[in-house]
Design goal:
There is one protein chain. The protein is about 60% helix and about 5% strand. It has a four-stranded antiparallel beta sheet with strand order 2-1-3-4. The radius of gyration is 25 Å and the shape is elongated. The longest helix has about 30 residues. A hairpin with a 2-residue loop joins strand 1 and strand 2. Helix 4 crosses helix 5, helix 4 runs antiparallel to helix 10 and helix 9 packs antiparallel against helix 10. It folds into two domains: about 80 residues, no CATH class; about 170 residues, no CATH class. With about 260 residues, the protein is an alpha+beta fold. The protein starts with a strand and ends with a helix.
Length: about 260
């Protein structure tokens, strides 16, 4: 991509992103200077062009520290993520090895960002809101309509559908986990596996969009907090207890038969 730039009232260029970086270093341009992509007739500040922002960060260009705003821009990769921005592998493996507890933590982190960062509410309770299906689904929907995320990557649909599906299959998973033993073993395992994996698929769909937008905006990943570590420990212990229980029943049945 090449860009025209405005300098002393004149439109010059086009130049490459490297050329823009050189002009900044020569003090001819700064982060508030206007540029226009050759294929998009719209003037934007350099700081508002994701490609140039990312290029400056990745190139390791050192901006003079005399300008506070520019110096702050050097730490682009340290900017706070929008919603829960994590590697896809972190979501998938954490979900699979915590009996799905991580899915609830994922919802909590996105709910927290929406409540405290976007709506500025205080004193709200996740436990209280999680009892209302509409509020749970609203978290998914708000992600798809978030203005800042959409400025980097347009959401293709309202994620409310994913929210409803996640909620339905999550409760079905709990139902079969608690009462599925009354079914035949084959049907029980099939329904348990299906209802366990499908909610993860809907989380992956939403996470892929969140990651795409955050990446284009140059945002860092969400840090691993103590709450996340606790959820993982509790989830893994629960998984081990469940596996020992299942294998114990299987071993007992084997002894009765043979």
């Amino acid at each position: 991509m090449r860009y025209f730039y405005s300098y002393e009232g004149r439109t010059l260029g086009p130049v490459s992103p490297d050329g823009i970086m050189d002009l900044i270093l020569c003090d001819k341009l700064d982060m508030d200077s206007y540029v226009m992509a050759v294929n998009e007739p719209r003037w934007l500040k350099i700081r508002d062009v994701p490609e140039l922002v990312r290029h400056l960060h990745e190139s390791g260009t050192r901006i003079p520290a005399s300008d506070i705003d520019i110096e702050g821009f050097r730490a682009l990769g340290d900017e706070e993520p929008i919603y829960f921005h994590i590697p896809m592998s972190r979501l998938v493996f954490s979900y699979l090895f915590t009996l799905g507890f991580y899915g609830v933590y994922w919802l909590f982190k996105n709910w927290s960002f929406l409540r405290y960062k976007r709506k500025g509410k205080t004193g709200t309770s996740f436990l209280r809101d999680s009892g209302n299906p509409l509020l749970i689904v609203n978290v998914f929907s708000q992600i798809s309509y978030d203005r800042e995320l959409n400025s980097a990557a347009r959401s293709e649909r309202d994620f409310a559908f994913y929210g409803w599906m996640w909620l339905i299959f999550y409760w079905l998973c709990i139902f079969f986990f608690l009462f599925g033993s009354k079914l035949s073993p084959g049907i029980h395992w099939l329904m348990q596996t299906v209802t366990y994996l499908i909610p993860l698929w809907f989380l992956v769909k939403v996470q892929r969009y969140v990651n795409q937008a955050n990446s284009k905006l140059g945002r860092r990943y969400s840090t691993v907090e103590s709450g996340e570590r606790l959820v993982k420990v509790v989830g893994v212990i629960s998984l081990l207890i469940w596996l020992f229980s299942v294998f114990g029943k299987g071993f007992g049945l084997f002894r009765l038969l043979f």
